[in-house]
Amino acid sequence: MKHFLLSIFLFLIGIASHAQNETQKIALLNSAKYFEIKSRANYTEAILKAKENGWPLRYKSKNNASSNLVGIDAFGQPKYLTTFADPIQAITINTNKVWPGGGLGFNLSGATDIMTNKLGIWDEGVPRPTHV
């Protein structure tokens, strides 16, 4: 009888655990959709404010950093995502170790069209719900 009750108890825990995982998955997908919509609305507002205020949508700095308007902050000021062509940022996060001669043997150069200037990139902001 003990084994039967234990089996039923474990079975019910398994069902509850599966239901909880499905609930969490749905909550995460709903959150991702919410933040994507919020991010798109923020970007649209930034584009409109850029036209009103003369903000550039994109620009390059003196050190060849490329900046793109990505939204506005809580104070209504422009937010720019900046990427750098300077290797210091890649060295800071150790992506230089995947470059040719970097020591890990990957020898990635960014020479293909899809990878040009992307070996030191890092993602900031709301993740896309389509990310695996």
Would you write up a description of this structure?
There is one protein chain. With 132 residues, the chain is of the alpha+beta class. It is built from two helices and three strands. The protein has helices at 2-53, 87-92, and strands spanning 58-60, 66-72, 78-83. A three-stranded antiparallel β-sheet has the order 1-2-3. A hairpin with a 5-residue loop joins strand 2 (66-72) and strand 3 (78-83). The two termini are 46 Å apart. The relative contact order is 0.10.
Cα shape: flat
Number of DSSP-assigned strands: 3
Order of helices and strands: HEEEH
Largest sheet: 3 strands, antiparallel
N-to-C CA distance: 46 Å
**Rg, Cα atoms, Å:** 23 Å
Give the strand line-up of the largest sheet.
1-2-3
Contiguous uncertain segments of 5+ residues: none
Q: What structural category characterises the helix and strand content?
A: alpha+beta
What proportion of the residues form beta strands (DSSP E)? 5-15%
Helix share, percent:
40-55%
Mean pLDDT: 79
Please count the helical segments. 2
